[in-house]
Amino acid sequence: LVHFCDSSRAIHVYGWQSACVRMLRHLGVRSKGTWQSSSWRRLRLLSTMISLGVSSLLVAFLVACAAGKDAINSNLMNREVTRTIDLRTHIVHSSTSFTLENHGSQPASSFHYAIDAAHAKTVSHIGATVTAEGKETVLTVAEEIGSDSSGAGLVRINLASPLASRQSVTVVVSAAFPGVVSPYPSQIVQSEKQLVQFTGNHYVLSPYKTDTQKTFVNLPNKNVESMTRLQPAGVNEDKLTYGPYENVAPMRSDEMVVHYENNSPFLSIADMERSIEVSHWGNIAVEETLDLVHTGAKLKGSFSRYDFQRTPGGSSSVQSFKTVLPAAARDVYYRDEIGNISTSHLLEKDDSVELELRPRFPLFGGWRTHYYIGYNVPTYEYLMRAGNQYKLTMRVVDHVYDDQHIQNYRLRITLPEGCKNIKVSTPYSMKEQPRSLLYTYLDTFGRPVVTLQKSNLVQDHIQDFVLTYEFQSTLMLQEPLLVVGFFYMLFITVIISTYIF
Questions:
Q1: What is the C-alpha to C-alpha distance for residues 155 and 32, in angstroms, rounded to an integer?
Q2: Is the pLDDT of residue 18 over 70?
Q3: How many whole angstroms from its chain centre is CA 414?
Q4: Cβ atoms of residues 280 and 353 within 8 Å
Q5: Residue 363 has what DSSP assignment?
Q6: pLDDT tens profile 316-339
Q7: Edge-to-edge, what's the strand order for the sheet holding 389-395?
Q8: H or E stretch including 479?
Q9: What pLDDT, on the 0 to 100 scale, is given for residue 43?
């Protein structure tokens, strides 16, 4: 009998010695006294050895089962690999097409996607798709990133259907890596152009052998200071080509360094909180508080407003950016600690509302700004009802600016007073904080608040969450009755006091 303790992963073996004693008694040995003490000690030693041996076999079996779940399938091979690395913004986007072949006798239900050791901790999002008969299918990607002995990351991706023996399938894997491109030099003067450096791998890292592979690197312009060249390699305007490389061994690596000009906005949201307050009286209030920082090359020397107005172009500074709001957004405001910021423009479209935000001052490398925006949307577009059951469907995070990166993010959802059986479902893993209560006007026992947290978000994380709860419709009369009761008691008090005095 083996008992597994989940908290300490310890193994406690018991019952084997007593089982041996019961067996011997069944064979005619009725008491311990019929045996000599040495024989009895040998029996107890033998039973202990049996128990340890059986427990060791059980542990080895369970470890083998757990390891086999994520073991590398040596029967898979990459027949052709084509990778495209996009370096046009401050976030590196990689899109890799794998043509996998199964050379084993058993079907393969998954494969592993490898990440360079230097980028394994910065990866923000990984997605995979497969196209069959003109239909694109999204594959399931494991959220946990494993590693091998070299520190490279390994992510398991489940195929839409098992890959039979001697068959092939083409899978496209996309990944986003914020913080990989670094300014070089790290400081520049106000009018100087920004140079950055990217360090990667000439080869497409894969745990499988590759017949042939090729890499394309897209740059924002043709101004390349330097680049490593692993032949065959070439340059065509703003595109670099590496390969084709043939017969590439598994997990082969060779450093790639590209030093180029990039004046795109290096904006990053250091901290963001999105607050959603739901009301059953027809309105949902949304407010976002942001701490925005420029992560590009820091400004060397002082800032000159005159030089900035004279030559506004050709600089890596950020003067404005666009935030996309829902089409039903109304009562939009844009403020900071000082007050309302009037240097903003609102453009209403058929499917969205574009808000052009212009901070009070341009953002240079190392500079930051703190602001918050808010708006209201009608309840009927996001809240569904079936009896006492309610379902809220809204975005986890909305579009703040193009190629956004959020370092730390919090989502606070405030529900009406009296909600019960609250359940939340998110499209990806988020850490839920202990639920709390918020007391506002006319509240008696507080409004429930659900708080979710996540770090390292990019534009691919703009997806919907679903929150369900129960609410008795009669509770909507609570606040009106409180107001009516207050004025009733007030009038009664005035009448009585007038009659008495």
A1: 58
A2: no
A3: 23
A4: no
A5: B
A6: 888 889 999 999 999 999 998 888
A7: 383-386, 389-395, 464-470, 420-425
A8: helix 478-500
A9: 54
Give phi and psi for 165, each to the nearest 5.
-65, 135
| Paired sense of beta strands 464-470 and 420-425, if any | antiparallel
- 251 CB-near residues (< 8 Å, 6+ apart): 114, 148, 150, 152, 205, 206, 207
Query: How large a percentage of the chain has pLDDT more than 90?
Result: 61
- A 10 A CB-CB count for 287 gives 16
DSSP state of 133: T
Torsion-angle region of residue 151: left (phi > 0), alpha (psi -120 to 50) or beta? left
* Structure confidence by residue, pLDDT tens digits, 419-478: 999 999 999 999 999 999 998 887 788 899 999 999 999 999 999 999 999 998 877 777
Q: Work out the pLDDT band at 313, boundaries 50, 70, 90.
A: low
Decide the pairing of beta strands 187-188 and 298-299. Answer: parallel
For 45-90, where are the E strands, in sequence order? 76-86
> In which residue are the tokens 């994380």 written?
461
Single-letter amino acid code for the residue at 219? L
Q: Mean pLDDT over all residues of the chain? A: 85
What's the helix, strand, coil split of the chain in %, to 5? 15, 45, 35
Q: Please list, in sequence order, all residues whose beta carbon lies within 8 angstroms of the beta carbon of residue 285, skipping any fewer than 6 positions away.
A: 275, 276, 277, 279, 374, 375, 376
Take residue 32 and report the two structure tokens written for it.
């311990």
| Three-state SS letters, 417-476 | CCCEEEEEECCCCCEECCCEEECCCCCCCCEEEEEEEEEEEEHHHCCEEEEEEECCHHHH
In this structure, what token pair is assigned to residue 316? 């890596």
Q: How confident is the model at residue 46 (pLDDT cuts 50, 70, 90)?
A: low
- d(CA 135, CA 158) in angstroms, rounded, equals 17
What tokens appear for 193 in the block?
A: 């152009």
Spatial separation of the C-alpha atoms in residues 407 and 388, rounded to whole Å: 38
